[in-house]
Amino acid sequence: MTDQTDSHRDAPDPGAAPPPRTAPPDPRSPTGVPEPSTQPDARRQSGERLTTAQGLRVDDTDHSLTAGPRGPVLLEDHHLREKITHFDHERIPERVVHARGAGAHGTFRAYGNAASVTRAAFLAETDRETDVFVRFSTVLGSRGSADTVRDVRGFATKFYTDEGVFDLVGNNFPVFFIQDAVKFPDIIHAGKPHPDREIPQAQSAHDTFWDFISSHTESTHMAMWAMSDRAIPRSYRTMEGFGVHTFRLEAADGTTSLVKFHWKPVLGVHSQVWEEAQITQGADADFHRRDLADAIDAGAFPQWELALQVMPDSPDETFEGIDLLDPTKIVPEEICPVQRVGIMTLHANPTNYFAETEQVAFHVDHLVPGIHVTNDPLMQGRLFSYLDTQLTRLGGPNFAQLPVNRPHAPVNDMLRDGMHQTAVHDGVVAYKPNALDGDLPAASPRDGFVTVATPVDGTKARHHPVSFTDHFSQARLFWLSMSPVEQAHIAQAYTFELGKCASVQVRQNMLASLARVDDELASRVAAGLGLPVPAGDVPAVGEPSPALSQVPRSPARVDGRVVGVLVADDGDLGVVGTLRSALAEHRVVVRVVAAHGGEVGSGGVRETVDRTILATRSVEYDAVVVADGTAGSPLAADGRTPVLLQEAYRHGKAIAVVGDGTELLHAAGVAAESPGVHVLPDDNGLDVALLHDLGMHRSWERLMALAQA
């Protein structure tokens, strides 16, 4: 009988390290030591040549197979299809990109002035109203990441038109990193966490991202946008949107135009500053989705105007020397003004996040009569990728039957069966022509979608148009169009991000690219990194584009902005009521901040506390007011109070102090004479000062002084 003690002693320790793996004796070897194998290890990919999954060597992984230099992408491009298909199926069921999102329902109302360029009824008919669902998102992070990371933001709109669904699947930047969809898996893999450690999450400040950007200089322009304040928006409500690509619109008379889509926020364009964005990530990871939902609940319905840049449909598909098929290029608004053709209002939050925001399925190829795609090679790849993605994420081909995806137009698709089939099809045939069902449903050769006939002629090859080789002129245009404070933020962002790269070579390569954008930019970043300034040929560009700057020329609307009022029990609470009355018509939210919860005040004047100083941070407020009577109070003695004021000051936010509230200002080390800081004996004129400062978003003069300090 086996001794139990010995048995336990001989049993392996589950916490011990496993023994080293040794190969079994090789009977073919005279020494018993295995001979080196000539067969590849199936568990590893160690070949020196790039191949397909089947081992076929690849000649080019940067360009899709097209019919001619400017022709459409061909379906026979096996490498493109395999690469994109594998990428689309990498995650189940979370989206590979745009995983973290927020959505809302709304209505789009057309102005009617687009009838001259498109026969799409939802744009062409005056006051035509169309239901919409919009999903905003970050790109790189997982569903569990934070809202305010530095990243591109998705801005996807589903129009439920009477002629079918039209999806405008865009971003808050008008350009993209790459020119050809075959490189889309590469840029996303470069931006995602490193595969060995799965870090960093939702960040571009790491080696693989900047190695890709510096190695693919077509990304230089987009990287400038990503390092600007545009990449850290204040809210979805103050964020521009773009269709990115050039579309072809067809009018009722058959004429065509090349068009770019823009969303212009009614509240103006506004961003956080970098420290503010970082604090927000820790204080409230759901900051943007909460802001969107709260604004809708409060009746401060977010609005954007849809605008078009309309250009001639010329044979070379260029405008003023700009290649309209290159998704890394913009057309400055100064040479092609935007024409506003309708307004979108978001007025309802989703009833169920999963059923609507998570299951909504967008596709660039969801078009309606009057709107067509072009041969932009990035756009062409998206025509395949989006549909393929939905098949995996939503379990089969019937995702259009989910309520959030269901068209608001009559449907008879003659499709059958498949997973999650909920439609009950009539008839016995699923083909045309037929005699058994009266040859129904009928085709629509006149009022249906008919692809615009465009000539295609060229050699089948992996082309790279000469016009796509200009990688720096528009990056320089963007830099020159920024205000001094925005330029300072861009230089700081590059310095921060490249400072997170372990590879000195990657930093040097990126500095070489920046030297071809602007000498001063390269010098600032090089100084911050402690590296020499490389030489570079800076391209000549035209006049700057003021439309690219976020600094407003005049105050914008302030719907949904938040003012925090710091008060004490024995202090003057009248300022709270004064502000609420004065700012109510502007839909500004006033929150009471005190040392404790419950109520503050004495006698007949009492106010409910919205936030305690323990449970709040400066990022919750667009402006901060310190009421009279706070000096010597528990609020003044709390160390978190000066921190809140210091942060608001550094972030350029409006600060107002009334009466002895100046003592809190001095204790925080905030200079009373600074721009955007208002010291008042009472609350007279306080609302006017706050409305102006809120409308300008920040004190840009103060931010510039801080950047130069």
From TrEMBL:
Record-annotated Catalase core domain positions: 51-440
Ranges of compositional bias, category Pro residues: 15-28
Enzyme class, UniProt record, top EC level: oxidoreductase
Reaction catalysed by this enzyme: 2 H2O2 = O2 + 2 H2O
EC number of the protein: 1.11.1.6
Keyword annotations: Heme, Hydrogen peroxide, Iron, Metal-binding, Oxidoreductase, Peroxidase
Region (Disordered): 1-72
Signal peptide positions (record): none
Keyword Iron: yes
Superkingdom classification of source: Bacteria
Cofactor list: heme
CDD domains documented for this protein: GATase1_catalase
UniProt feature, compositional bias: Basic and acidic residues: 1-12
Hydrolase keyword on record: no
UniProt-listed Pfam families: Catalase, Catalase-rel, Catalase_C
Family the entry assigns: Belongs to the catalase family. HPII subfamily.
Task performed by this protein: Decomposes hydrogen peroxide into water and oxygen; serves to protect cells from the toxic effects of hydrogen peroxide.
Protein name: Catalase
UniProt organism field: Isoptericola cucumis
Organism phylogeny: Bacteria, Bacillati, Actinomycetota, Actinomycetes, Micrococcales
